[in-house]
Structures are given as C-alpha cells and as structure tokens.
Amino acid sequence: MLAIQNNIMAMNASRHLGRSYSALGNSVERLSSGLRINSAKDDAAGLAVRELMRAEIAVQGQGARNAQDGVSMLQTMEGAMAVMNENLIRMMELAEQSATGSYSQSQREIMNAEFEEMANEIERIAHATQFNEIAMLNSDTGSVEIHVGTEETINVNTVDMTKDGLGIETGDGGWRHVSDHGVADASDTWVTIDNDGENTDNLTIQFDGEEEIVVELDATHGGAGEYSLNQIAALINEESQSLGYDSDGNNLAYNAAEVVYDEADETYNLQLSSRGGDAASMTIELGSDVTATGGLTGQDDVSADFDEGSEQAGLNILTAEAAQDALNTVEDAIHIKDGARAMFGYKMNRLESTITILGIQEENLQASESRISDVDVATEMAELTRTQVLAQAGTAMLAQANTMPQMALTLLG
Predict the structure, then answer these.
(1) Count of beta carbons in the 10 Å neighbourhood of residue 377
(2) CATH superfamily of domain region 53-169+319-362
(3) What is the pLDDT of residues 189-218, one digit of tens each?
C-alpha cells in the first residue's frame, strides 16, 4: 500500500540497519580490546568463570614469587653457614696444631686466642645474619612459613648455629665461683681484719690440681685493715700472676679474680676462676681475724668447699689434652652444622620445584581463561565483514525506502 503518513519500508529498513550497526559495534569492540567478553551482557556465565580464573592466576603468580623469595632467604642463610664452616675448619686446624707436644704454653695461648675468635665470629654471624629482619640461625625453636599459592605452606625450621647450639662455648675450663653476696660499689669494703694491727692474716685459695694462691692481709689502718672489693681482686691477681712456670716450662700466670656485676641483686661480686681445665673444685680459707663482709663463706679459719660453684664452659686448646677434646667437639659441631645446612638445601630444592609447578599451573589456567575470554580474531573478522556489508546494504535500502512516499506525489498532480 502506497502511503504518506507511515513509511513501513523505511521503518523496516531502519530496524535491520540498527541491528547491523549494533553487531558491527560489538565486533569493533571485541577486536579492539582483544576480548570476547567485555561486559556481563556479552556472556554473564563466562564473565563469572573468567574473573575467578583471573584471581587464581594472580594468586599462583604471587605464590611463585613467594617461593622465589623463600629461596633467596635460604640462600642467604646457607651462605652464612658456609662461612661458619670455614671458621669451624680453622678451629679444628688450630686444635690439631695445639694437640702436638712440640709447642710451649705461650704458643698455645696464642693459638687459643684465635680459636676463641673463630668461635666468637660464628656467634656473631648467627645473630647478625637476617633476611628482611628475619633471623634463622640463632634459635631452633621457630619456623618460617612460606605461602606458595595453595592452602598449604612450606615450613622451614630455624636452626641454632650459636656457640651454645653448636656446643663450642669457649673458656678456660676448670672451676668458677661467684660470691653469694656483693657490695653496692666495687670500692666498698670487702674484707676486714681486726687484730689490733699486730698480725698478718692470709686469704688462701686452692683449686685442686693447681698451686695455692695466698694473699697476705695486714692491718695497716690504725688497728683495723679494710680492703675494698677492687683491692682484694687486685691482690689475688698479683699473686696468681706470680705463680711462675711448671716443670715443663709452661707459664702458670693468669688472673684468678674478677669483679662482676649481678644485675638481679644490683651488686658487685667477686668471681674466682681456676687457671686451666683440670680443676673440679675449690677451697678457700680465711685467717682467724679476717671477716669477709662481701659474702665469702669461709671465716675464722674455717675451710669451705664451694660446691655451689660451677664448672666453666671450657672448650679451649690451652693444653694438648684439651686440644684433643676440642677436636672431637668441633667435629660434632660440624656435623650439627652440616645437618642444618642440608635441611636448608633440600628446602631450597623443594621451593624451586614448587616454582616450576606453579608456573605450569599458571600457564594452564591462563590458557583456560583465554579460551573463555579472548576473542577469536579470524571468526570475529568474518563477522565484522558480514555486518559491514549488511550495514552498507541497510543504509542503501533505507535511502530507497525514504524516497518511496514521493511516488504518491505523481498521483496527487
């Protein structure tokens, strides 16, 4: 029907042209973004699956980076342990050197000084080695959890590579005692002798297997002799430094006394130590007129065995026998260190294996996400070409349809 009011052909052509342009717009959007799904209207179900996959891919990628950081952390710790190993080897070398009988005591003391320095360096490394402020070598009671993109974690236990953990605490060995009571200040009176200045009394210290240390105390202060803690320590060391040499030519001189501070009681105390590693007990004897105000138990000519004393941590190479014992102890420390180092090694291997697996999983997830989300360029180009032709045809037909009402004018003329 030829009509002027309503151009049905134009409306039909316009509707088809709109659909063609809409399809053309979708194809252009997909090809320009590279995505088949650009909004929920494109594929609501596919969009939901894709977003979950993208989240999982991100988690897998971060998990792999976490594992790589874990490897770096363990490499840092393992590298520090390699340096410790060099120090332990040097300690064994020094112990072997001192174990032979061709060295003098003074030479062994030089060897022992380096031996202690090696142990102290191991202690320093154990506390100083950190990764992002995380220490793993100074305690065996903790662990580090490495999250690798799954619900489970890879736990790495910390290890104790300190001197205590390796059993290489150094010292002169033997016997040590710290007085039961102290004084507020090291310059305060430690012992008093009250004999009207007529006699001299002694303070005698005897470690079993070693020479006596005899300190002569004389009342020189108007009938009463008062000696501060510092003075007593100095007098004891004056005597212990004068012990001379043994039959083998070994120098017996050492400092037997030391003033130590007790943080709990906030007092200064007298510490007495044996010279070498053979002593297992100590006896102290005070003269009849000596009063020990600083806490030494033996008073009024009473001898007291200091059972409350303690054997010192005494790994040293000051004697051939001690050096032979040190060889076994340091060898045990190397075994402990090797076990811990091996544990770090297989944890690194496990983390590197995890990194490989996470990479494969991430790749497969990415492929799955691509199949859901990415546009098939060949198919979409074919669709774009088809919709372009349809749009061009629709535009031409709409133009023709818009001229149809003019045909009615010939009838009206």
Answers:
(1) 12
(2) f41 fragment of flagellin, N-terminal domain (1.20.1330.10)
(3) 887 776 555 556 778 888 877 788 988 887
